[in-house]
Design goal:
The structure holds 2 protein chains of 2 kinds. Chain A is an all-alpha fold. Chain A has 2 domains: about 90 residues, Orthogonal Bundle (Rna Polymerase Sigma Factor, Chain: A); about 50 residues, Orthogonal Bundle (Arc Repressor Mutant, subunit A). Chain A has 9 helices and no strands. The N and C termini of chain A lie far apart (about 50 Å). Chain B is an alpha+beta fold. In chain B, the strands form 2 sheets. In chain B, strands 6-5-4-3-7 form a 5-stranded antiparallel sheet. In chain B, strands 1-2 form a two-stranded antiparallel ribbon. Chain B is elongated, with a radius of gyration of 26 Å. The chains are: A mainly alpha, B alpha+beta.
Chain lengths: ~160, ~230
């Protein structure tokens, strides 16, 4: 394993957490992580040494997630009954997982642009500046999406 | 003192003076204190649920790949594993992540109720083939066809669910070739087993080009024997 692969490998657990912040369910999150690794390995020459590998990899994952938005929506329309089965079938898996599933479903109800801001800052712990760079938006935009997303979540979880 | 500033304070985005200002305002106002506490509590709740993903030990994938197949098949296979402990993730084998292969035939052997090996490809039981040939989506039958669509290669594909086998098959030559499979779902009350639905949904999402066929397109494709009209 070369330096790049070692660095990417070290980043993997955090990428996987970010994927859980974005994706519809844990299986999709692992698919997204896998797809991100593949893309990152193929595109490794695009990463400039000395710049943040974290931000680069987060950006790849976020863009892949956006790309799949259309098929996610269609699947939700076409195969809505799977939702029911999902919650029926997966819930007993493990006590600790139930809470994760629950919070993922809450995140799922946020608009995409609020969700990605929340995932990067509140879950991944990126600084506002870093998150704004990953999303390629002005910091003011990031902040307002973050605030609206968190207000909506509090409403859902405690309201 | 607006909520954005309180959240920024909680996120550690404010420097000394600004942070002290917010801290003083929160200390002086019970409503602001409650608001700050609600945000802190939520942040901690998400950390408790999501941080174990980072610290969780990662297992090596199961058996080594037999051959490289589509990501859709891998998704299907992985979704089928879902009820068991998830054995995914890689470090130490990151390059192998490119070799994401699972040969479906290894998991769904002949006699498992639906698949027979034919010339190294996966062939379907006659009951399934007949349904795929002749049944419109949504029609009742021992094997039900749920959705028809065209894949990225332009071939017709149909998702189906039978007693022993569910999955997606695509037209190949004069027959149907199984692309993804999950165990069938004998009906249990009002809902079907989750694994096969979720796996099939993920597989379709990865395979589909454009929108699913509507009823008219489906009839027309059926009358053309599921062959492509061009070329």
């Amino acid at each position: 394993m070369d330096d790049f692969e070692a660095a990417l490998s070290a980043l993997l657990p955090r990428l996987r957490r970010f994927a859980h912040g974005l994706a519809h369910n844990p299986a999709d999150a692992d698919d997204l992580t896998q797809a991100t690794l593949e893309r990152a390995l193929k595109a490794r020459w695009q990463w400039q040494a000395g710049t943040s590998l974290d931000a680069w990899a987060y950006r790849i994952m976020r863009n892949l997630w956006i790309d799949t938005a259309r098929s996610r929506q269609r699947r939700d329309q076409v195969l809505a009954p799977a939702e029911l089965g999902e919650s029926v079938g997966v819930a007993p898996e493990a006590e600790g997982k139930a809470e994760l599933h629950f919070l993922m479903r809450a995140l799922d109800r946020l608009p995409d642009e609020q969700r990605e801001a929340v995932a990067l800052v509140m879950i991944e712990g990126l600084a506002y500046r870093e998150a704004a760079d990953v999303l390629d938006v002005p910091i003011g935009t990031l902040t307002s999406r973050l605030v609206r997303g968190r207000q909506a979540l509090i409403e859902m979880l405690e309201g | 003192m607006d909520e954005a500033r309180i959240i920024a304070w909680i996120d550690g985005e404010l420097d000394g003076e600004a942070a002290a200002e917010v801290a003083a305002a929160v200390a002086a106002d019970p409503a602001l204190a409650a608001q700050a506490e609600a945000h802190r509590r939520m942040k901690a709740r998400f950390a408790a649920a999501f941080d174990p993903i980072v610290t969780a030990p990662v297992a090596r994938p199961g058996p080594p790949p037999a051959s490289v197949v589509s990501l859709a098949a891998v998704r299907a296979a992985r979704a089928m594993e879902a009820p068991k402990r998830k054995s995914w993730a890689i470090p130490g084998a990151i390059a192998a992540s490119l070799l994401v292969g699972v040969l479906l035939g290894h998991q769904w052997s002949p006699g498992g109720g639906g698949i027979a090996d034919r010339d190294g490809t996966l062939a379907l039981a006659p009951s399934v083939s007949h349904a795929l040939d002749g049944q419109l989506a949504g029609e009742a039958g021992a094997v039900r066809v749920a959705l028809s669509f065209r894949d990225h290669q332009g071939d017709y594909c149909r998702s189906f669910a039978g007693q022993h086998l569910a999955g997606v098959a695509c037209r190949a030559g004069s027959g149907w070739q199984l692309r993804t499979a999950a165990p069938g779902a004998p009906s249990q009350g009002d809902y079907r087993m989750a694994g096969s639905d979720a796996a099939t949904a993920a597989a379709i999402a990865a395979m589909i080009e454009g929108d699913p066929l509507d009823a008219a397109q489906e009839r027309s494709a059926r009358s053309a024997g599921w062959r492509l009209k061009t070329n």
